[in-house]
């Protein structure tokens, strides 16, 4: 979020923090240098920090706005790191509007912009970028696994891992710099090879294994992408409607009814899943249908799983251009055809519900298999993945460039640490000097 240049980061900001109105409760948050003074004007004497007190909230002219709870959080022990306050009033539109209007009348106070409380927490060192992103994901979480992943990020679990790796890189660089520049000092090790490169090779392996979990992290956050594909009239739209338990897609006897890609969101044992219904795959000269098939194949290429449907008695497609994931062959219309376990992974009937529970379990099993090797300290955004790849690439070059000079290999380590630091937003070039001076007594 970028602050409007016409506004001052030093302003005291306020906003409704409790969601849309009307509601049973309206929580107005205030943060900044005059937050406590403003709250004192509105509510009279202030309670002890972090203790709620029932107060009459008044305008500066003495008009009663409401009676509610007041809490104060003197900085730096607050969410933003600044002096902060919360005023809890009844969640009526008029009540909250009057309170916000009164706050806007104080000099140096203004309405907060989107995400500005979190940005101030970041600026004041109360949170890093990963924790801020985790907080956003926690607010948006719709499934249990999304909640768990967001909590892990918000609590700093992922940040701690990256900071530990960055510390190891910093120490390795410090040892190298010490050998390059202070080799004549008795308290500097004579050779860093055994001390540094074995640890860097181990770190390379750890980073590579962590990056392998990025796909699953993105699945938890964004949802397992499941595409229903197959020829016209194979029962794709019927399956979509059966799983959604409502009429999402139009179902007719006419082949090629589905022209565009439709999707629904499902909760599968706490995991988010996005299910796509696509146009029937066949050779056709009809322009609109051909465009639908083109979109279907593009969606399939980006899937995590493809449910390849075919009416029992016909072959289910197993190869899709650009897709290298798992394809499940699903035989449909088992209410009018005998089940065939040899040619299909599962036989179902969307009309009678036969096989739908087994299909649900098949997706659950796939998710559990994907999750078995990973904790929830996982990268979950494309930004995380790209920076981790940059860091791993630089680290790999540092470890493998055995014939290069120490200065070149140290530069690769610097790049690896810089990319890790960009993930959390904490890139401090002074860390290297701190290690050298404290551990090797260079300035003696």
Automatic annotation (TrEMBL):
The keyword Metal-binding applies. This is tRNA modification GTPase MnmE. K(+) binds at residues 233, 252, 254, 257. Its EC number is 3.6.-.-. Homodimer. Heterotetramer of two MnmE and two MnmG subunits. It holds the Pfam family TrmE_N. (6S)-5-formyl-5,6,7,8-tetrahydrofolate binds at residues 29, 86, 126, 444. GO terms for cellular component: cytoplasm. Gene3D superfamilies: P-loop containing nucleotide triphosphate hydrolases, Probable tRNA modification gtpase trme, domain 1, tRNA modification GTPase MnmE domain 2. InterPro entries: G_TrmE, GTP-bd, GTP-bd_TrmE_N, GTPase_MnmE, MnmE_dom2, MnmE_helical, P-loop_NTPase, Small_GTP-bd. It is found in: Cytoplasm. The gene is mnmE. One of its GO terms (biological process) is tRNA methylation. It is an enzyme of class 3 (hydrolase). GTP binds at residues 233-238, 252-258, 277-280. Coiled coil: none annotated. Binds 1 potassium ion per subunit. Belongs to the TRAFAC class TrmE-Era-EngA-EngB-Septin-like GTPase superfamily. TrmE GTPase family. Keywords: Cytoplasm, GTP-binding, Hydrolase, Magnesium, Metal-binding, Nucleotide-binding, Potassium, tRNA processing. GO terms for molecular function: GTP binding; GTPase activity; metal ion binding. PROSITE patterns: G_TRME.
């Amino acid at each position: 979020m970028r602050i409007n240049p016409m506004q001052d980061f030093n302003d005291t900001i306020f906003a409704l923090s409790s969601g849309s109105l009307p509601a049973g409760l309206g929580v107005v948050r205030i943060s900044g240098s005059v937050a406590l003074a403003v709250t004192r004007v509105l509510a009279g004497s202030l309670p002890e920090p972090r203790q709620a007190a029932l107060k009459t909230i008044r305008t500066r002219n003495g008009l009663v706005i409401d009676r509610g709870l007041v809490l104060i959080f003197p900085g730096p022990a607050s969410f933003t790191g600044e002096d902060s306050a919360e005023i809890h009033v009844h969640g009526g539109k008029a009540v909250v509007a009057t309170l916000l209007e009164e706050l806007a009348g104080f000099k140096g106070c203004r309405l907060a912009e989107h995400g500005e409380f979190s940005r101030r927490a970041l600026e004041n060192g109360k949170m890093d970028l990963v924790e801020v992103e985790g907080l956003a994901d926690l607010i948006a979480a719709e499934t249990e696994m999304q909640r768990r992943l967001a909590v892990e990020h918000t609590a700093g679990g992922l940040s701690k891992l990256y900071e530990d790796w960055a510390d190891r890189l910093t120490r390795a660089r410090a040892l190298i710099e010490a050998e390059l520049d202070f080799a004549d000092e008795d308290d500097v090790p004579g050779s860093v090879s055994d001390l540094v490169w074995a640890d860097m090779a181990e770190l390379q392996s750890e980073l590579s294994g962590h990056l392998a979990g990025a796909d699953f992290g993105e699945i938890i956050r964004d949802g397992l992408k499941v595409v229903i594909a197959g020829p016209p009239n194979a029962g794709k739209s019927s399956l979509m409607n059966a799983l959604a338990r409502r009429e999402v897609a139009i179902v007719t006897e006419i082949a090629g009814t589905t022209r565009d890609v439709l999707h629904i969101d499902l909760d599968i044992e706490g995991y988010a899943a996005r299910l796509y219904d696509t146009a029937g795959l066949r050779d056709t000269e009809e322009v609109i249908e051909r465009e639908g098939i083109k979109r279907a194949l593009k969606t399939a290429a980006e899937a995590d799983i493809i449910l390849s449907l075919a009416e029992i008695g016909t072959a289910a497609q197993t190869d899709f251009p650009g897709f290298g994931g798992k394809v499940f062959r699903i035989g449909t219309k088992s209410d009018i055809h005998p089940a065939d376990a040899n040619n299909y992974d599962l036989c179902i009937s969307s009309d009678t519900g036969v096989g739908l529970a087994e299909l649900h379990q098949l997706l659950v099993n796939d998710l559990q298999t994907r999750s078995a090797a990973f904790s929830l300290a996982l990268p979950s955004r494309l930004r995380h993945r790209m920076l981790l790849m940059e860091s791993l690439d630089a680290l790999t070059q540092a470890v493998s460039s055995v014939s290069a000079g120490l200065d070149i290999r140290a530069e690769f380590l610097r790049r690896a640490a810089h990319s890790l630091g960009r993930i959390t937003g904490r890139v401090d070039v002074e860390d290297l000097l701190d290690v050298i001076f404290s551990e090797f007594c260079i300035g003696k």
